[in-house]
Design goal:
single chain; about 140 residues; alpha/beta; seven-stranded mixed β-sheet; 7 strands; globular
């Protein structure tokens, strides 16, 4: 009886710890223009939030965006690939983590442009950040931060 209790307890503990352990090994590949420094700031931001980040400087950033179906009007400063999703631009970590935990049936998310005060960007946040879904059809709002 004690053996069954111990085995069951160990199983429940391992199940409870699995998301935490999985969360520690998040891997991201960030594609950026070689001259852009704010992209490095975003990569550092991801690293501070326990992501392993590989930065790839490329003069073919438009090709990367096209290959990942990022519409022109939703383009951000850089394109990051994380666990099968596209994260376009300076998206706050709370929204990135929401995407990875909810796993919606979309291509990814985008914070278009280079909003002041967003992760990796200087300045103060002046307006809420509107993060869009990257999917077919008319863009819809995924989150507002």
């Amino acid at each position: 009886m004690i053996r069954i209790f111990l085995v069951t307890t160990m199983f429940l503990i391992s199940v409870a710890l699995t998301p935490a352990l999985a969360g520690e090994s998040k891997v991201a590949t960030l594609y950026k223009n070689p001259q852009c420094t704010c992209c490095e700031g975003y990569a550092d931001y991801l690293r501070q939030n326990k992501y392993t980040v590989t930065v790839i400087s490329t003069h073919d950033l438009n090709l990367i965006k096209k290959q990942n179906n990022v519409p022109e009007d939703l383009e951000g400063c850089h394109t990051t690939l994380i666990d099968g999703y596209v994260v376009e631009g300076h998206v706050p970590i709370a929204t990135v983590n929401k995407l990875l935990s909810e796993r919606p049936n979309i291509k990814g998310i985008s914070l278009p442009g280079m909003p002041m005060g967003s992760p990796g960007m200087s300045g103060d946040k002046l307006t809420p950040f509107i993060i869009y879904e990257l999917s077919k059809g008319t863009p819809t709002v995924y989150a507002v931060e």
